[in-house]
Amino acid sequence: MLELNFQPFPVIETERLLLREITDADIDMLFCLRSDKTVMKYVDRPLAVTKEDVMPLYNKTVAGVAENTGISWVIGLRETAEMIGQIGFWRIDTENHRAEIGYMLRPEFFGKGFGSEALKAVLSHGFKHFRFHSVEANVSPGNDASKRLLEKAGFVQEAYFRENYYFDGNFLDSLIYSLLEIDMK
Q1: At what angle do helices 27-34 and 55-67 cross, to 10 degrees?
Q2: pLDDT, position 185
Q3: Are 8 and 65 in contact (CB under 8 A)?
Q4: What digits encode the pLDDT tens for the residues 28-50?
Q5: What's the confidence (pLDDT) of residue 100?
Q6: Total structural domains in the chain?
Q7: Does the CA dihedral 175-61-2-18 come out positive or negative?
Q8: Does residue 168 surpass a pLDDT of 70?
Q9: What is the CATH number of the domain that holds 82?
Protein backbone atom coordinates (compact mmCIF):
# COMPACT_ATOMS: atom_id res chain seq x y z
CA MET A 1 0.00 0.00 0.00
CA LEU A 2 1.25 3.48 -0.82
CA GLU A 3 2.04 5.85 2.00
CA LEU A 4 1.79 9.33 0.53
CA ASN A 5 3.18 12.53 2.02
CA PHE A 6 2.61 15.77 0.14
CA GLN A 7 4.61 17.87 2.62
CA PRO A 8 6.62 19.77 1.82
CA PHE A 9 4.51 20.56 -1.23
CA PRO A 10 6.40 19.42 -4.36
CA VAL A 11 6.96 22.44 -6.58
CA ILE A 12 7.76 21.38 -10.15
CA GLU A 13 9.47 23.56 -12.74
CA THR A 14 9.43 22.95 -16.48
CA GLU A 15 10.74 25.00 -19.36
CA ARG A 16 7.77 27.40 -19.29
CA LEU A 17 5.80 26.45 -16.19
CA LEU A 18 5.90 26.62 -12.42
CA LEU A 19 3.63 23.99 -10.91
CA ARG A 20 2.94 25.13 -7.38
CA GLU A 21 0.58 24.93 -4.43
CA ILE A 22 -2.66 26.88 -4.56
CA THR A 23 -2.97 29.90 -2.24
CA ASP A 24 -5.65 32.38 -1.25
CA ALA A 25 -4.25 34.69 -3.93
CA ASP A 26 -5.43 32.20 -6.59
CA ILE A 27 -9.12 32.24 -5.62
CA ASP A 28 -10.01 34.93 -8.18
CA MET A 29 -8.38 32.93 -10.98
CA LEU A 30 -9.94 29.68 -9.73
CA PHE A 31 -13.29 31.45 -9.99
CA CYS A 32 -12.42 32.61 -13.53
CA LEU A 33 -11.65 29.01 -14.52
CA ARG A 34 -14.73 27.51 -12.89
CA SER A 35 -17.08 30.19 -14.23
CA ASP A 36 -15.84 30.01 -17.83
CA LYS A 37 -18.23 28.09 -20.10
CA THR A 38 -15.42 27.09 -22.47
CA VAL A 39 -13.27 25.67 -19.65
CA MET A 40 -16.22 23.91 -18.03
CA LYS A 41 -17.79 22.56 -21.24
CA TYR A 42 -16.67 18.99 -20.49
CA VAL A 43 -16.44 19.25 -16.70
CA ASP A 44 -19.61 17.82 -15.27
CA ARG A 45 -19.89 20.28 -12.41
CA PRO A 46 -22.04 23.40 -12.10
CA LEU A 47 -20.57 26.68 -13.35
CA ALA A 48 -19.40 28.93 -10.54
CA VAL A 49 -21.59 32.02 -10.31
CA THR A 50 -19.88 33.68 -7.35
CA LYS A 51 -16.47 33.38 -5.71
CA GLU A 52 -18.19 31.63 -2.82
CA ASP A 53 -19.05 28.81 -5.25
CA VAL A 54 -15.37 27.88 -5.60
CA MET A 55 -14.59 27.93 -1.89
CA PRO A 56 -15.63 24.29 -1.26
CA LEU A 57 -13.30 23.21 -4.09
CA TYR A 58 -10.50 25.42 -2.79
CA ASN A 59 -10.94 24.06 0.74
CA LYS A 60 -11.09 20.47 -0.54
CA THR A 61 -7.88 21.04 -2.52
CA VAL A 62 -6.05 22.42 0.52
CA ALA A 63 -7.41 19.64 2.76
CA GLY A 64 -6.41 16.94 0.25
CA VAL A 65 -2.80 18.05 0.44
CA ALA A 66 -2.87 18.34 4.24
CA GLU A 67 -4.47 14.89 4.59
CA ASN A 68 -2.41 13.26 1.79
CA THR A 69 -5.56 12.19 -0.07
CA GLY A 70 -5.17 14.31 -3.21
CA ILE A 71 -2.81 16.85 -4.68
CA SER A 72 -3.46 19.63 -7.14
CA TRP A 73 -0.95 22.00 -8.64
CA VAL A 74 -1.59 25.47 -9.95
CA ILE A 75 -0.28 25.59 -13.50
CA GLY A 76 1.57 28.90 -13.44
CA LEU A 77 3.73 30.66 -15.94
CA ARG A 78 7.33 30.22 -14.88
CA GLU A 79 8.26 33.88 -15.26
CA THR A 80 5.30 35.32 -13.32
CA ALA A 81 3.70 32.33 -11.50
CA GLU A 82 0.37 33.61 -12.91
CA MET A 83 -2.26 30.86 -12.71
CA ILE A 84 -3.25 29.60 -16.15
CA GLY A 85 -4.78 26.33 -15.03
CA GLN A 86 -4.80 23.47 -12.59
CA ILE A 87 -3.70 19.82 -12.68
CA GLY A 88 -3.70 17.12 -10.05
CA PHE A 89 -4.25 13.61 -8.77
CA TRP A 90 -7.40 12.66 -6.93
CA ARG A 91 -9.33 9.48 -6.24
CA ILE A 92 -6.01 8.01 -5.20
CA ASP A 93 -6.28 4.26 -4.64
CA THR A 94 -3.30 3.59 -2.37
CA GLU A 95 -3.92 -0.15 -2.23
CA ASN A 96 -3.59 -0.45 -6.01
CA HIS A 97 -1.04 2.34 -6.57
CA ARG A 98 -3.45 4.12 -8.91
CA ALA A 99 -4.74 7.68 -9.17
CA GLU A 100 -7.04 9.67 -11.41
CA ILE A 101 -5.69 12.81 -13.03
CA GLY A 102 -7.65 15.92 -13.88
CA TYR A 103 -6.65 19.21 -15.48
CA MET A 104 -7.95 22.45 -16.94
CA LEU A 105 -6.48 25.50 -18.67
CA ARG A 106 -7.66 29.01 -19.41
CA PRO A 107 -8.86 29.17 -23.05
CA GLU A 108 -6.20 31.66 -24.14
CA PHE A 109 -3.59 28.97 -23.37
CA PHE A 110 -5.29 26.17 -25.36
CA GLY A 111 -3.28 24.62 -28.19
CA LYS A 112 0.09 26.01 -27.13
CA GLY A 113 1.57 22.90 -25.50
CA PHE A 114 1.07 24.04 -21.91
CA GLY A 115 -1.24 21.11 -21.14
CA SER A 116 1.25 18.57 -22.49
CA GLU A 117 4.10 20.20 -20.61
CA ALA A 118 2.21 20.17 -17.31
CA LEU A 119 0.85 16.65 -17.81
CA LYS A 120 4.26 15.19 -18.60
CA ALA A 121 5.85 16.81 -15.52
CA VAL A 122 3.09 15.78 -13.12
CA LEU A 123 2.95 12.21 -14.43
CA SER A 124 6.72 11.89 -14.10
CA HIS A 125 6.49 13.13 -10.51
CA GLY A 126 3.60 10.80 -9.74
CA PHE A 127 5.37 7.71 -11.01
CA LYS A 128 8.79 8.56 -9.58
CA HIS A 129 7.98 10.14 -6.22
CA PHE A 130 4.50 8.88 -5.33
CA ARG A 131 5.24 5.44 -6.80
CA PHE A 132 1.97 5.18 -8.75
CA HIS A 133 1.75 2.11 -10.95
CA SER A 134 -1.00 3.55 -13.14
CA VAL A 135 -2.89 6.75 -13.71
CA GLU A 136 -6.36 7.03 -15.20
CA ALA A 137 -8.33 9.85 -16.75
CA ASN A 138 -12.11 10.09 -17.09
CA VAL A 139 -13.00 12.01 -20.25
CA SER A 140 -16.23 13.14 -21.85
CA PRO A 141 -16.51 11.38 -25.23
CA GLY A 142 -16.88 14.72 -27.01
CA ASN A 143 -13.69 16.20 -25.57
CA ASP A 144 -11.38 15.59 -28.53
CA ALA A 145 -8.66 17.94 -27.25
CA SER A 146 -8.39 16.03 -23.98
CA LYS A 147 -8.31 12.70 -25.79
CA ARG A 148 -5.45 13.95 -28.02
CA LEU A 149 -3.56 15.28 -24.99
CA LEU A 150 -3.80 11.94 -23.20
CA GLU A 151 -2.93 9.88 -26.27
CA LYS A 152 0.11 12.08 -26.93
CA ALA A 153 1.27 11.29 -23.38
CA GLY A 154 0.89 7.55 -24.01
CA PHE A 155 -2.52 6.92 -22.43
CA VAL A 156 -4.75 4.26 -23.98
CA GLN A 157 -8.50 4.01 -23.87
CA GLU A 158 -9.52 1.24 -21.49
CA ALA A 159 -13.28 1.59 -21.44
CA TYR A 160 -16.34 3.36 -22.73
CA PHE A 161 -19.05 3.50 -20.09
CA ARG A 162 -22.54 4.23 -21.34
CA GLU A 163 -24.64 6.58 -19.23
CA ASN A 164 -22.64 5.84 -16.09
CA TYR A 165 -22.71 9.37 -14.71
CA TYR A 166 -25.68 11.54 -13.78
CA PHE A 167 -25.31 15.31 -14.04
CA ASP A 168 -27.76 18.14 -14.53
CA GLY A 169 -30.72 15.88 -15.25
CA ASN A 170 -28.91 13.68 -17.78
CA PHE A 171 -27.08 10.38 -17.83
CA LEU A 172 -23.71 10.89 -19.50
CA ASP A 173 -21.14 8.58 -21.06
CA SER A 174 -17.50 8.39 -19.95
CA LEU A 175 -14.26 7.34 -21.60
CA ILE A 176 -11.61 5.89 -19.31
CA TYR A 177 -7.99 6.26 -20.33
CA SER A 178 -5.01 4.84 -18.46
CA LEU A 179 -1.25 5.00 -18.45
CA LEU A 180 1.06 2.49 -16.82
CA GLU A 181 4.39 3.66 -15.53
CA ILE A 182 6.20 1.36 -17.96
CA ASP A 183 4.33 2.92 -20.91
CA MET A 184 5.06 6.57 -20.17
CA LYS A 185 6.53 8.32 -23.21
Answers
A1: 120
A2: 62
A3: no
A4: 999 999 999 999 999 999 999 99
A5: 98
A6: 1
A7: positive
A8: yes
A9: 3.40.630.30
CA dist list (Å): 40 to 43, 46, 47, 135, 143: 5, 8, 7, 22, 11
Residue 21 to residue 65: CA distance in whole angstroms: 9
Tell me if 140 is assigned to some domain.
yes
Structural domain boundaries enclosing 140 = 12-183
Contacts of 171 (CB under 8 A, 6+ apart): 163, 164, 165
On average, the pLDDT of the chain sits at 97
Q: What is the mean pLDDT of residues 1-28?
A: 97
pLDDT band at 184 (very low <50, low <70, confident <90, very high): confident
Q: What strands, in cross-sheet order, belong to the sheet with 98-105?
A: 12-13, 17-20, 71-77, 83-93, 98-105, 134-139, 170-180, 156-167
